[in-house]
Task: inverse folding
Protein backbone atom coordinates (compact mmCIF):
# COMPACT_ATOMS: atom_id res chain seq x y z
CA UNK A 1 0.00 0.00 0.00
CA UNK A 2 1.35 3.37 -0.96
CA UNK A 3 0.60 6.79 0.42
CA UNK A 4 1.11 10.17 -1.19
CA UNK A 5 3.00 12.42 1.18
CA UNK A 6 4.95 15.65 1.24
CA UNK A 7 8.55 15.75 2.41
CA UNK A 8 11.15 18.48 2.90
CA UNK A 9 14.47 18.53 1.09
CA UNK A 10 17.36 20.95 0.84
CA UNK A 11 21.13 21.09 0.64
CA UNK A 12 23.73 21.07 3.36
CA UNK A 13 25.10 24.60 3.35
CA UNK A 14 28.71 23.58 3.87
CA UNK A 15 28.97 20.50 1.61
CA UNK A 16 26.11 21.05 -0.80
CA UNK A 17 24.88 17.49 -0.15
CA UNK A 18 21.23 16.76 -0.88
CA UNK A 19 19.47 16.23 2.44
CA UNK A 20 16.03 15.22 3.70
CA UNK A 21 14.10 16.24 6.81
CA UNK A 22 13.76 13.32 9.23
CA UNK A 23 11.58 14.93 11.87
CA UNK A 24 14.55 15.47 14.15
CA UNK A 25 17.27 16.57 11.78
CA UNK A 26 18.64 16.02 8.28
CA UNK A 27 19.69 12.83 6.50
CA UNK A 28 21.38 12.16 3.16
CA UNK A 29 19.12 9.13 2.66
CA UNK A 30 15.66 9.80 1.30
CA UNK A 31 14.29 6.73 3.06
CA UNK A 32 14.73 8.64 6.30
CA UNK A 33 12.44 11.44 5.15
CA UNK A 34 9.21 11.90 7.06
CA UNK A 35 5.86 13.23 5.94
CA UNK A 36 5.11 16.80 6.80
CA UNK A 37 1.76 18.57 6.76
CA UNK A 38 0.72 22.06 7.81
CA UNK A 39 3.94 22.31 9.84
CA UNK A 40 6.22 22.40 6.74
CA UNK A 41 6.56 26.17 6.53
CA UNK A 42 7.38 26.43 10.21
CA UNK A 43 10.02 23.68 9.96
CA UNK A 44 11.64 25.34 6.96
CA UNK A 45 11.66 28.75 8.63
CA UNK A 46 13.17 27.31 11.80
CA UNK A 47 15.82 25.27 9.98
CA UNK A 48 16.76 28.09 7.60
CA UNK A 49 17.33 30.35 10.58
CA UNK A 50 20.03 27.98 11.83
CA UNK A 51 22.04 28.75 8.67
CA UNK A 52 23.21 25.17 8.16
CA UNK A 53 20.90 24.19 5.29
CA UNK A 54 19.93 25.97 2.11
CA UNK A 55 17.41 25.75 -0.72
CA UNK A 56 14.88 24.04 1.52
CA UNK A 57 11.55 23.23 -0.07
CA UNK A 58 8.64 20.80 0.01
CA UNK A 59 8.18 18.13 -2.64
CA UNK A 60 5.65 15.41 -3.39
CA UNK A 61 6.61 11.83 -2.59
CA UNK A 62 5.18 8.37 -2.15
CA UNK A 63 5.68 6.21 0.93
CA UNK A 64 5.41 2.47 0.42
CA UNK A 65 6.83 -0.60 2.14
CA UNK A 66 9.09 1.45 4.36
CA UNK A 67 10.59 3.36 1.46
CA UNK A 68 10.11 7.00 0.52
CA UNK A 69 10.26 7.85 -3.17
CA UNK A 70 10.04 11.40 -4.56
CA UNK A 71 7.22 11.71 -7.05
CA UNK A 72 9.09 13.53 -9.78
CA UNK A 73 12.02 12.07 -11.71
CA UNK A 74 14.17 15.15 -11.01
CA UNK A 75 13.80 14.65 -7.27
CA UNK A 76 14.41 10.91 -7.57
CA UNK A 77 17.69 11.62 -9.37
CA UNK A 78 18.54 14.16 -6.65
CA UNK A 79 17.97 11.41 -4.11
CA UNK A 80 20.14 8.86 -5.89
CA UNK A 81 22.89 10.79 -7.68
CA UNK A 82 23.71 10.87 -11.40
CA UNK A 83 22.24 7.80 -13.10
CA UNK A 84 25.35 7.63 -15.29
CA UNK A 85 27.66 7.46 -12.27
CA UNK A 86 26.13 4.98 -9.86
CA UNK A 87 29.58 4.62 -8.36
CA UNK A 88 28.99 8.09 -6.90
CA UNK A 89 25.60 7.24 -5.42
CA UNK A 90 25.01 6.68 -1.73
CA UNK A 91 25.06 2.90 -2.27
CA UNK A 92 27.76 2.38 -4.88
CA UNK A 93 28.08 -1.34 -4.15
CA UNK A 94 24.39 -2.02 -4.78
CA UNK A 95 23.66 -2.46 -8.51
CA UNK A 96 19.94 -2.17 -7.77
CA UNK A 97 20.33 1.08 -5.86
CA UNK A 98 18.84 3.11 -8.68
CA UNK A 99 16.19 0.68 -9.86
CA UNK A 100 13.38 2.91 -8.61
CA UNK A 101 14.62 6.17 -10.14
CA UNK A 102 13.52 5.88 -13.77
CA UNK B 1 50.03 32.78 -24.87
CA UNK B 2 48.97 35.76 -22.82
CA UNK B 3 50.67 36.23 -19.47
CA UNK B 4 49.03 38.26 -16.72
CA UNK B 5 50.63 41.58 -15.86
CA UNK B 6 50.55 42.91 -12.31
CA UNK B 7 47.13 44.48 -12.85
CA UNK B 8 45.53 41.26 -14.08
CA UNK B 9 46.99 39.30 -11.18
CA UNK B 10 46.05 41.92 -8.61
CA UNK B 11 42.44 41.95 -9.84
CA UNK B 12 42.09 38.19 -9.66
CA UNK B 13 43.86 37.91 -6.30
CA UNK B 14 41.66 40.64 -4.86
CA UNK B 15 38.59 38.82 -6.08
CA UNK B 16 39.71 35.61 -4.37
CA UNK B 17 40.25 37.45 -1.09
CA UNK B 18 36.88 39.14 -1.39
CA UNK B 19 35.08 35.85 -2.03
CA UNK B 20 36.92 34.18 0.85
CA UNK B 21 35.44 36.78 3.15
CA UNK B 22 31.99 36.38 1.66
CA UNK B 23 32.07 32.59 2.10
CA UNK B 24 33.22 32.97 5.71
CA UNK B 25 30.36 35.34 6.39
CA UNK B 26 27.88 32.94 4.82
CA UNK B 27 29.16 29.98 6.82
CA UNK B 28 28.99 31.99 10.02
CA UNK B 29 25.40 32.97 9.28
CA UNK B 30 26.22 36.63 8.87
CA UNK B 31 24.95 36.48 5.29
CA UNK B 32 21.65 34.85 4.36
CA UNK B 33 21.33 32.73 1.23
CA UNK B 34 19.41 35.50 -0.48
CA UNK B 35 22.30 37.85 0.18
CA UNK B 36 24.98 35.32 -0.69
CA UNK B 37 23.57 33.72 -3.82
CA UNK B 38 24.34 36.61 -6.21
CA UNK B 39 27.86 36.80 -4.75
CA UNK B 40 28.64 33.13 -5.30
CA UNK B 41 27.17 33.23 -8.79
CA UNK B 42 29.51 36.11 -9.61
CA UNK B 43 32.28 33.63 -8.88
CA UNK B 44 30.90 30.79 -10.95
CA UNK B 45 29.54 28.81 -8.00
CA UNK B 46 26.09 27.36 -8.64
CA UNK B 47 23.95 25.10 -6.48
CA UNK B 48 23.07 22.31 -8.87
CA UNK B 49 21.03 19.14 -8.65
CA UNK B 50 23.37 17.30 -6.27
CA UNK B 51 25.83 19.80 -4.89
CA UNK B 52 27.66 23.06 -5.57
CA UNK B 53 29.04 23.25 -9.11
CA UNK B 54 31.98 25.46 -9.99
CA UNK B 55 32.36 26.70 -13.55
CA UNK B 56 35.90 27.78 -14.38
CA UNK B 57 36.53 30.09 -17.33
CA UNK B 58 39.00 29.01 -19.97
CA UNK B 59 39.63 32.30 -21.78
CA UNK B 60 38.90 31.76 -25.50
CA UNK B 61 39.50 28.06 -24.89
CA UNK B 62 43.28 28.38 -24.54
CA UNK B 63 45.31 26.73 -21.77
CA UNK B 64 48.96 26.05 -21.07
CA UNK B 65 50.12 22.82 -19.49
CA UNK B 66 50.47 24.29 -16.00
CA UNK B 67 46.89 25.50 -16.11
CA UNK B 68 45.62 22.17 -17.40
CA UNK B 69 47.53 20.34 -14.68
CA UNK B 70 45.88 22.48 -12.01
CA UNK B 71 42.49 21.67 -13.52
CA UNK B 72 43.32 18.00 -13.02
CA UNK B 73 44.62 18.58 -9.52
CA UNK B 74 41.43 20.40 -8.54
CA UNK B 75 39.39 17.41 -9.73
CA UNK B 76 41.35 15.18 -7.38
CA UNK B 77 41.82 17.50 -4.44
CA UNK B 78 38.40 19.12 -4.19
CA UNK B 79 36.03 17.10 -6.38
CA UNK B 80 35.47 13.43 -7.19
CA UNK B 81 38.29 12.84 -9.61
CA UNK B 82 36.87 14.25 -12.82
CA UNK B 83 35.77 17.40 -14.57
CA UNK B 84 33.35 18.20 -17.38
CA UNK B 85 34.43 20.29 -20.38
CA UNK B 86 31.51 22.32 -21.67
CA UNK B 87 30.19 23.74 -24.93
CA UNK B 88 31.37 27.15 -23.69
CA UNK B 89 34.99 25.97 -23.68
CA UNK B 90 34.90 25.99 -19.88
CA UNK B 91 35.28 23.25 -17.29
CA UNK B 92 32.79 22.43 -14.55
CA UNK B 93 33.27 20.54 -11.30
CA UNK B 94 30.14 18.90 -9.94
CA UNK B 95 30.87 18.14 -6.29
CA UNK B 96 32.36 21.26 -4.74
CA UNK B 97 32.13 22.05 -1.04
CA UNK B 98 31.36 25.67 -0.24
CA UNK B 99 34.16 25.95 2.29
CA UNK B 100 36.67 24.79 -0.35
CA UNK B 101 35.60 27.26 -3.03
CA UNK B 102 37.96 30.10 -2.00
CA UNK B 103 40.92 27.72 -1.91
CA UNK B 104 40.04 26.45 -5.38
CA UNK B 105 39.88 29.99 -6.72
CA UNK B 106 43.25 30.69 -5.07
CA UNK B 107 44.75 27.62 -6.76
CA UNK B 108 43.34 28.81 -10.08
CA UNK B 109 44.68 32.34 -9.58
CA UNK B 110 48.20 30.98 -9.16
CA UNK B 111 48.07 29.82 -12.79
CA UNK B 112 46.13 32.84 -14.07
CA UNK B 113 42.71 31.25 -14.18
CA UNK B 114 39.46 32.28 -12.51
CA UNK B 115 35.71 31.76 -12.48
CA UNK B 116 34.77 35.42 -12.88
CA UNK B 117 31.76 36.16 -15.10
CA UNK B 118 30.93 32.52 -15.69
CA UNK B 119 27.43 33.27 -14.44
CA UNK B 120 25.04 36.18 -14.25
CA UNK B 121 23.73 38.76 -16.68
CA UNK B 122 27.11 40.02 -17.74
CA UNK B 123 29.55 39.48 -20.62
CA UNK B 124 30.57 35.84 -20.27
CA UNK B 125 33.85 34.20 -21.19
CA UNK B 126 34.63 34.94 -24.84
CA UNK B 127 34.90 31.82 -26.99
CA UNK B 128 37.07 31.43 -30.07
CA UNK B 129 38.15 29.14 -32.85
CA UNK B 130 39.94 26.26 -31.12
CA UNK B 131 42.38 26.04 -34.02
CA UNK B 132 43.39 29.70 -33.58
CA UNK B 133 47.07 30.30 -34.17
CA UNK B 134 47.47 26.94 -35.90
CA UNK B 135 44.92 26.96 -38.72
CA UNK B 136 46.18 27.57 -42.21
CA UNK B 137 43.03 29.42 -43.24
CA UNK B 138 42.96 32.23 -40.66
CA UNK B 139 43.70 35.84 -41.66
CA UNK B 140 45.07 36.54 -38.17
CA UNK B 141 45.19 34.89 -34.78
CA UNK B 142 41.85 35.89 -33.19
CA UNK B 143 43.10 35.37 -29.64
CA UNK B 144 44.80 38.74 -29.13
CA UNK B 145 41.47 40.36 -29.97
CA UNK B 146 39.70 37.94 -27.63
CA UNK B 147 42.18 38.82 -24.87
CA UNK B 148 41.63 42.52 -25.40
CA UNK B 149 37.92 41.81 -25.18
CA UNK B 150 38.46 39.83 -21.96
CA UNK B 151 40.28 42.72 -20.35
CA UNK B 152 37.68 45.23 -21.49
CA UNK B 153 34.71 43.15 -20.37
CA UNK B 154 36.09 42.03 -16.99
CA UNK B 155 34.29 43.96 -14.25
CA UNK B 156 33.00 46.46 -16.85
CA UNK B 157 30.65 48.43 -14.60
CA UNK B 158 28.26 49.50 -17.35
CA UNK B 159 27.68 45.92 -18.48
CA UNK B 160 27.60 44.10 -15.16
CA UNK B 161 23.81 44.00 -15.01
CA UNK B 162 22.65 43.52 -18.56
CA UNK B 163 19.07 42.43 -19.32
CA UNK B 164 20.45 38.88 -19.73
CA UNK B 165 23.71 37.02 -20.11
CA UNK B 166 25.83 37.98 -23.10
CA UNK B 167 28.08 35.69 -25.10
CA UNK B 168 30.68 36.71 -27.67
CA UNK B 169 32.53 34.41 -30.07
CA UNK B 170 35.42 35.37 -32.29
CA UNK B 171 36.93 33.67 -35.33
CA UNK B 172 39.35 34.65 -38.09
CA UNK B 173 38.58 32.13 -40.83
CA UNK B 174 35.83 31.63 -43.37
CA UNK B 175 35.39 28.21 -41.81
CA UNK B 176 33.48 28.85 -38.62
CA UNK B 177 34.64 26.40 -35.97
CA UNK B 178 33.09 28.33 -33.07
CA UNK B 179 29.38 28.48 -33.94
CA UNK B 180 30.02 32.21 -34.13
CA UNK B 181 26.67 33.19 -35.62
CA UNK B 182 24.82 31.50 -32.78
CA UNK B 183 26.15 33.99 -30.23
CA UNK B 184 24.83 37.32 -28.98
CA UNK B 185 27.71 38.96 -30.81
CA UNK B 186 29.85 37.16 -33.36
CA UNK B 187 33.07 38.68 -34.63
CA UNK B 188 34.90 37.50 -37.70
CA UNK B 189 38.37 38.96 -38.13
CA UNK B 190 38.70 39.81 -41.83
CA UNK B 191 41.11 41.53 -44.17
CA UNK B 192 39.86 44.19 -46.57
CA UNK B 193 41.05 44.88 -50.11
CA UNK B 194 43.72 47.21 -48.76
CA UNK B 195 45.07 44.38 -46.63
CA UNK B 196 43.90 45.97 -43.38
CA UNK B 197 42.63 43.84 -40.52
CA UNK B 198 39.14 44.53 -39.29
CA UNK B 199 36.07 42.98 -37.73
CA UNK B 200 32.89 41.78 -39.37
CA UNK B 201 30.19 42.00 -36.72
CA UNK B 202 27.14 39.78 -36.32
CA UNK B 203 24.51 40.41 -33.64
CA UNK B 204 21.47 38.71 -32.23
CA UNK B 205 22.26 35.05 -32.63
CA UNK B 206 21.58 32.41 -30.05
CA UNK B 207 19.96 29.12 -29.25
CA UNK B 208 17.66 28.60 -26.28
CA UNK B 209 13.89 28.60 -26.68
CA UNK B 210 14.05 31.09 -29.56
CA UNK B 211 16.97 30.09 -31.78
CA UNK B 212 18.21 32.72 -34.20
CA UNK B 213 21.14 33.10 -36.56
CA UNK B 214 22.92 36.41 -36.10
CA UNK B 215 22.68 38.77 -39.07
CA UNK B 216 25.65 40.91 -40.08
CA UNK B 217 25.47 44.41 -38.63
CA UNK B 218 28.80 45.75 -39.88
CA UNK B 219 30.93 44.44 -42.75
CA UNK B 220 34.19 46.02 -41.66
CA UNK B 221 35.14 47.82 -38.49
CA UNK B 222 38.85 48.66 -38.22
CA UNK B 223 40.46 46.34 -35.69
CA UNK B 224 41.58 49.26 -33.57
CA UNK B 225 37.94 50.29 -33.15
CA UNK B 226 36.65 46.84 -32.17
CA UNK B 227 36.12 47.72 -28.53
CA UNK B 228 34.34 50.96 -29.32
CA UNK B 229 31.98 49.15 -31.68
CA UNK B 230 31.31 46.46 -29.11
CA UNK B 231 30.68 49.15 -26.52
CA UNK B 232 28.12 50.68 -28.87
CA UNK B 233 26.44 47.35 -29.58
CA UNK B 234 26.20 46.56 -25.86
CA UNK B 235 25.03 50.06 -24.98
CA UNK B 236 22.09 49.94 -27.41
CA UNK B 237 21.16 46.49 -26.08
CA UNK B 238 21.50 47.64 -22.48
CA UNK B 239 19.27 50.61 -23.24
CA UNK B 240 16.46 48.79 -25.02
CA UNK B 241 16.75 45.12 -24.04
CA UNK B 242 13.65 43.71 -22.35
CA UNK B 243 14.10 43.59 -18.60
CA UNK B 244 10.42 42.89 -17.99
CA UNK B 245 10.44 39.38 -19.43
CA UNK B 246 13.32 36.96 -18.90
CA UNK B 247 12.35 35.02 -21.99
CA UNK B 248 12.53 38.08 -24.21
CA UNK B 249 15.58 39.68 -22.68
CA UNK B 250 18.37 38.39 -24.93
CA UNK B 251 19.73 40.68 -27.63
CA UNK B 252 18.34 38.40 -30.34
CA UNK B 253 14.81 39.42 -29.36
CA UNK B 254 15.72 43.10 -29.50
CA UNK B 255 17.33 42.77 -32.92
CA UNK B 256 14.35 40.78 -34.14
CA UNK B 257 11.74 43.15 -32.73
CA UNK B 258 13.20 46.45 -33.91
CA UNK B 259 14.79 44.95 -36.99
CA UNK B 260 18.42 44.55 -37.91
CA UNK B 261 18.46 47.81 -39.89
CA UNK B 262 17.21 49.90 -36.99
CA UNK B 263 19.45 48.13 -34.47
CA UNK B 264 22.44 48.66 -36.77
CA UNK B 265 21.52 52.33 -37.25
CA UNK B 266 21.42 52.91 -33.52
CA UNK B 267 24.71 51.07 -33.01
CA UNK B 268 26.39 53.17 -35.72
CA UNK B 269 25.05 56.34 -34.13
CA UNK B 270 26.36 55.29 -30.72
CA UNK B 271 29.62 54.14 -32.27
CA UNK B 272 30.18 57.56 -33.84
CA UNK B 273 29.60 59.15 -30.47
CA UNK B 274 31.93 56.79 -28.62
CA UNK B 275 34.70 57.41 -31.12
CA UNK B 276 34.64 61.08 -30.10
CA UNK B 277 35.32 60.06 -26.49
CA UNK B 278 38.58 58.27 -27.18
CA UNK B 279 37.67 55.18 -25.14
CA UNK B 280 39.44 52.71 -27.40
CA UNK B 281 42.40 50.96 -25.79
CA UNK B 282 45.69 52.37 -27.08
CA UNK B 283 47.12 50.51 -30.11
CA UNK B 284 50.20 49.72 -28.06
CA UNK B 285 48.10 47.53 -25.76
CA UNK B 286 46.89 45.39 -28.63
CA UNK B 287 50.46 45.17 -29.91
CA UNK B 288 51.65 44.12 -26.44
CA UNK B 289 49.06 41.37 -26.36
CA UNK B 290 49.81 40.29 -29.92
CA UNK B 291 53.44 39.90 -28.97
CA UNK B 292 52.52 37.21 -26.48
CA UNK B 293 50.67 35.23 -29.14
CA UNK B 294 53.41 35.49 -31.72
CA UNK B 295 55.08 32.35 -32.96
CA UNK B 296 55.07 29.91 -30.02
CA UNK B 297 58.32 28.39 -31.19
CA UNK B 298 57.46 26.55 -34.38
CA UNK B 299 60.47 25.10 -36.18
CA UNK B 300 60.86 25.39 -39.92
CA UNK B 301 62.07 22.84 -42.41
CA UNK B 302 60.44 19.83 -40.74
CA UNK B 303 59.32 16.87 -42.77
CA UNK B 304 55.68 16.07 -43.44
CA UNK B 305 56.47 12.37 -43.70
CA UNK B 306 54.41 10.06 -41.56
CA UNK B 307 54.72 6.33 -40.96
CA UNK B 308 51.16 5.04 -41.28
CA UNK B 309 51.99 1.35 -41.02
CA UNK B 310 49.99 0.93 -37.79
CA UNK B 311 46.39 0.79 -39.05
CA UNK B 312 44.85 2.01 -35.79
CA UNK B 313 47.19 4.98 -35.77
CA UNK B 314 46.46 5.71 -39.42
CA UNK B 315 42.73 5.64 -38.69
CA UNK B 316 43.16 8.12 -35.86
CA UNK B 317 45.30 10.39 -38.03
CA UNK B 318 42.69 10.37 -40.77
CA UNK B 319 39.90 11.27 -38.37
CA UNK B 320 41.36 13.38 -35.55
CA UNK B 321 44.38 15.18 -37.05
CA UNK B 322 44.15 18.39 -39.06
CA UNK B 323 46.54 20.28 -41.27
CA UNK B 324 48.70 22.87 -39.52
CA UNK B 325 49.74 26.17 -41.05
CA UNK B 326 53.39 25.17 -40.61
CA UNK B 327 54.92 22.29 -42.57
CA UNK B 328 55.93 19.38 -40.37
CA UNK B 329 53.25 20.12 -37.74
CA UNK B 330 49.72 18.90 -37.19
CA UNK B 331 46.70 19.84 -35.09
CA UNK B 332 45.54 16.97 -32.88
CA UNK B 333 42.03 16.74 -31.50
CA UNK B 334 41.64 14.47 -28.51
CA UNK B 335 38.15 13.05 -28.44
CA UNK B 336 36.44 13.04 -25.04
CA UNK B 337 33.70 10.87 -26.54
CA UNK B 338 34.59 7.20 -26.04
CA UNK B 339 31.86 4.70 -26.87
CA UNK B 340 29.67 4.39 -23.78
CA UNK B 341 31.34 7.39 -22.17
CA UNK B 342 30.06 10.72 -20.96
CA UNK B 343 30.70 13.48 -23.51
CA UNK B 344 33.14 16.07 -22.18
CA UNK B 345 34.12 14.23 -19.02
CA UNK B 346 37.78 13.60 -18.27
CA UNK B 347 39.37 12.10 -15.19
CA UNK B 348 42.02 13.92 -13.21
CA UNK B 349 44.57 11.48 -14.56
CA UNK B 350 43.50 12.12 -18.14
CA UNK B 351 43.57 15.88 -17.63
CA UNK B 352 47.10 15.74 -16.25
CA UNK B 353 48.19 13.40 -19.03
CA UNK B 354 46.92 15.85 -21.63
CA UNK B 355 48.83 18.59 -19.81
CA UNK B 356 52.01 16.53 -19.98
CA UNK B 357 51.53 15.86 -23.68
CA UNK B 358 51.02 19.56 -24.32
CA UNK B 359 54.21 20.35 -22.44
CA UNK B 360 56.25 17.70 -24.23
CA UNK B 361 54.76 17.76 -27.73
CA UNK B 362 52.55 20.83 -28.34
CA UNK B 363 54.66 23.84 -27.39
CA UNK B 364 52.87 23.92 -24.03
CA UNK B 365 49.45 24.73 -25.49
CA UNK B 366 46.01 23.13 -25.34
CA UNK B 367 42.58 24.23 -26.41
CA UNK B 368 39.11 23.30 -25.30
CA UNK B 369 36.73 23.06 -28.24
CA UNK B 370 33.06 23.97 -28.02
CA UNK B 371 32.44 20.39 -29.15
CA UNK B 372 33.77 19.29 -25.73
CA UNK B 373 37.06 17.92 -27.02
CA UNK B 374 40.66 18.93 -26.29
CA UNK B 375 43.09 20.15 -28.93
CA UNK B 376 46.88 19.91 -29.02
CA UNK B 377 47.48 22.66 -31.59
CA UNK B 378 51.18 22.32 -32.43
CA UNK B 379 52.35 18.71 -32.65
CA UNK B 380 55.29 17.75 -34.85
CA UNK B 381 54.28 15.05 -37.28
CA UNK B 382 57.35 13.17 -36.19
CA UNK B 383 55.84 13.01 -32.68
CA UNK B 384 52.32 12.01 -33.66
CA UNK B 385 52.80 8.31 -33.14
CA UNK B 386 54.18 8.78 -29.62
CA UNK B 387 51.32 11.13 -28.76
CA UNK B 388 48.78 8.65 -30.10
CA UNK B 389 50.30 5.79 -28.11
CA UNK B 390 50.10 7.80 -24.89
CA UNK B 391 46.51 8.83 -25.60
CA UNK B 392 45.49 5.30 -26.53
CA UNK B 393 46.86 3.92 -23.28
CA UNK B 394 44.70 6.43 -21.38
CA UNK B 395 41.49 5.81 -23.33
CA UNK B 396 41.81 9.10 -25.17
CA UNK B 397 42.43 7.96 -28.74
CA UNK B 398 38.87 7.42 -29.97
CA UNK B 399 39.06 8.15 -33.72
CA UNK B 400 35.60 9.66 -34.06
CA UNK B 401 35.97 13.39 -34.57
CA UNK B 402 32.87 14.83 -36.29
CA UNK B 403 31.35 11.36 -36.61
CA UNK B 404 28.00 10.33 -35.15
CA UNK B 405 29.51 9.30 -31.80
CA UNK B 406 31.34 12.64 -31.35
CA UNK B 407 28.21 13.83 -29.56
CA UNK B 408 27.80 17.21 -27.91
CA UNK B 409 25.63 16.77 -24.83
CA UNK B 410 24.74 19.03 -21.94
CA UNK B 411 24.89 17.54 -18.41
CA UNK B 412 21.11 17.11 -18.56
CA UNK B 413 18.96 15.89 -15.72
CA UNK B 414 21.78 13.82 -14.27
CA UNK B 415 23.41 16.99 -12.96
CA UNK B 416 21.52 20.12 -13.97
CA UNK B 417 18.77 21.67 -11.87
CA UNK B 418 17.20 23.27 -14.95
CA UNK B 419 17.05 20.15 -17.12
CA UNK B 420 13.87 18.27 -17.98
CA UNK B 421 15.41 15.07 -19.30
CA UNK B 422 18.69 13.21 -19.20
CA UNK B 423 21.15 13.73 -22.03
CA UNK B 424 24.07 11.58 -20.96
CA UNK B 425 22.50 8.08 -20.88
CA UNK B 426 21.02 8.82 -24.28
CA UNK B 427 24.43 9.77 -25.62
CA UNK B 428 25.78 6.52 -24.22
CA UNK B 429 23.03 4.48 -25.91
CA UNK B 430 23.62 6.17 -29.26
CA UNK B 431 27.36 5.54 -29.10
CA UNK B 432 26.68 1.92 -28.18
CA UNK B 433 24.32 1.52 -31.15
CA UNK B 434 26.80 3.09 -33.58
CA UNK B 435 29.96 1.79 -31.92
CA UNK B 436 31.41 0.19 -35.03
CA UNK B 437 33.95 2.66 -36.38
CA UNK B 438 33.56 1.36 -39.92
CA UNK B 439 29.86 2.13 -39.76
CA UNK B 440 30.57 5.58 -38.34
CA UNK B 441 32.98 6.38 -41.12
CA UNK B 442 30.53 5.11 -43.69
CA UNK B 443 28.08 7.68 -42.35
CA UNK B 444 30.79 10.34 -42.54
CA UNK B 445 30.49 13.78 -40.98
CA UNK B 446 27.40 13.73 -38.82
CA UNK B 447 27.12 16.13 -35.91
CA UNK B 448 24.69 14.95 -33.27
CA UNK B 449 23.83 17.25 -30.39
CA UNK B 450 21.65 16.66 -27.34
CA UNK B 451 20.08 19.17 -24.94
CA UNK B 452 18.22 18.18 -21.81
CA UNK B 453 16.02 21.27 -21.89
CA UNK B 454 15.03 24.19 -24.07
CA UNK B 455 17.99 26.27 -22.88
CA UNK B 456 19.94 24.34 -25.53
CA UNK B 457 23.33 24.11 -23.81
CA UNK B 458 23.82 20.99 -25.94
CA UNK B 459 23.33 23.02 -29.14
CA UNK B 460 20.55 20.74 -30.43
CA UNK B 461 19.29 23.43 -32.81
CA UNK B 462 22.65 23.30 -34.61
CA UNK B 463 22.99 19.53 -34.88
CA UNK B 464 22.78 17.78 -38.20
CA UNK B 465 20.74 15.56 -35.93
CA UNK B 466 19.53 17.34 -32.82
CA UNK B 467 17.72 15.96 -29.81
CA UNK B 468 15.78 17.97 -27.26
CA UNK B 469 14.74 16.31 -24.03
CA UNK B 470 11.42 17.42 -22.59
CA UNK B 471 9.31 16.51 -19.59
CA UNK B 472 5.99 15.00 -20.58
CA UNK B 473 3.96 14.61 -17.40
CA UNK B 474 6.99 13.54 -15.43
CA UNK B 475 8.34 11.20 -18.09
CA UNK B 476 11.37 11.92 -20.25
CA UNK B 477 10.53 12.46 -23.90
CA UNK B 478 12.85 13.32 -26.75
CA UNK B 479 12.13 15.48 -29.78
CA UNK B 480 14.20 14.83 -32.88
CA UNK B 481 15.45 17.63 -35.14
CA UNK B 482 17.19 17.40 -38.50
CA UNK B 483 19.17 19.83 -40.62
CA UNK B 484 20.89 22.13 -38.15
CA UNK B 485 24.44 23.33 -38.70
CA UNK B 486 26.83 25.69 -36.99
CA UNK B 487 29.62 26.31 -39.46
CA UNK B 488 29.80 28.76 -42.36
CA UNK B 489 26.45 27.40 -43.55
CA UNK B 490 24.71 27.87 -40.22
CA UNK B 491 21.12 26.67 -40.12
CA UNK B 492 18.57 25.68 -37.53
CA UNK B 493 17.18 22.18 -37.26
CA UNK B 494 13.53 21.29 -37.86
CA UNK B 495 11.54 19.04 -35.53
CA UNK B 496 10.57 15.79 -37.23
CA UNK B 497 7.29 15.33 -35.41
CA UNK B 498 6.07 13.69 -32.19
CA UNK B 499 8.72 12.83 -29.64
CA UNK B 500 10.10 9.48 -28.54
CA UNK B 501 11.12 7.52 -25.50
CA UNK B 502 14.85 7.15 -24.89
CA UNK B 503 15.03 3.85 -26.76
CA UNK B 504 12.62 5.09 -29.40
CA UNK B 505 14.77 8.05 -30.33
CA UNK B 506 17.81 5.79 -30.81
CA UNK B 507 15.77 3.67 -33.19
CA UNK B 508 14.58 6.79 -34.99
CA UNK B 509 18.16 7.98 -35.46
CA UNK B 510 19.05 4.65 -37.01
CA UNK B 511 16.15 4.98 -39.44
CA UNK B 512 17.32 8.50 -40.32
CA UNK B 513 20.82 7.26 -41.08
CA UNK B 514 19.39 4.42 -43.17
CA UNK B 515 17.51 6.94 -45.32
CA UNK B 516 20.68 8.95 -45.73
CA UNK B 517 22.73 5.95 -46.84
CA UNK B 518 20.02 4.91 -49.29
CA UNK B 519 19.51 8.36 -50.79
CA UNK B 520 22.89 10.08 -50.73
CA UNK B 521 24.55 10.95 -53.99
CA UNK B 522 28.29 10.99 -54.53
CA UNK B 523 30.23 12.42 -51.60
CA UNK B 524 27.26 14.11 -49.97
CA UNK B 525 27.39 14.50 -46.22
CA UNK B 526 24.26 13.73 -44.22
CA UNK B 527 23.52 17.45 -44.10
CA UNK B 528 23.86 17.80 -47.88
CA UNK B 529 21.47 14.95 -48.52
CA UNK B 530 18.97 16.32 -46.02
CA UNK B 531 19.08 19.73 -47.66
CA UNK B 532 18.59 18.19 -51.10
CA UNK B 533 15.76 15.77 -50.37
CA UNK B 534 14.10 17.55 -47.47
CA UNK B 535 12.35 16.24 -44.39
CA UNK B 536 9.66 14.08 -46.01
CA UNK B 537 11.64 10.86 -46.68
CA UNK B 538 13.07 10.90 -43.17
CA UNK B 539 9.68 11.50 -41.66
CA UNK B 540 8.19 8.68 -43.67
CA UNK B 541 10.88 6.32 -42.43
CA UNK B 542 10.45 7.37 -38.82
CA UNK B 543 6.68 7.56 -38.51
CA UNK B 544 5.35 5.88 -41.66
Result:
Amino acid sequence: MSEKIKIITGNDLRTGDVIWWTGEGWSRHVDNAVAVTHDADAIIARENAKQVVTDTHVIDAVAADGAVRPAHIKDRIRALGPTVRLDLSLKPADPQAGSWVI
Amino acid sequence: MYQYDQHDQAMVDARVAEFRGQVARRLSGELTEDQFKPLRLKNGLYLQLHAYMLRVAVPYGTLNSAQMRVLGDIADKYDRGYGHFTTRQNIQYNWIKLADAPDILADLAKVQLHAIQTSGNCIRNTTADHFAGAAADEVADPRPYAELLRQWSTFHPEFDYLPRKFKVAIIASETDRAAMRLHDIGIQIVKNEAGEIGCKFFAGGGMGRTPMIAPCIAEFVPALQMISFLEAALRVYNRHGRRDNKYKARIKILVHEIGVAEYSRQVQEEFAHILTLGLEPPPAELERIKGMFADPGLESGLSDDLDRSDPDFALWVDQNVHTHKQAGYAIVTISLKPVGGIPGDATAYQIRLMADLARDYSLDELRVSHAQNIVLPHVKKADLYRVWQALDAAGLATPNLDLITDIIACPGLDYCALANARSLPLAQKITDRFADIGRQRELGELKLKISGCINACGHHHAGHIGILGVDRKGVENYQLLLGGAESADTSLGTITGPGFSEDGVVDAIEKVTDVYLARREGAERFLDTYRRIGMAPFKEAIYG
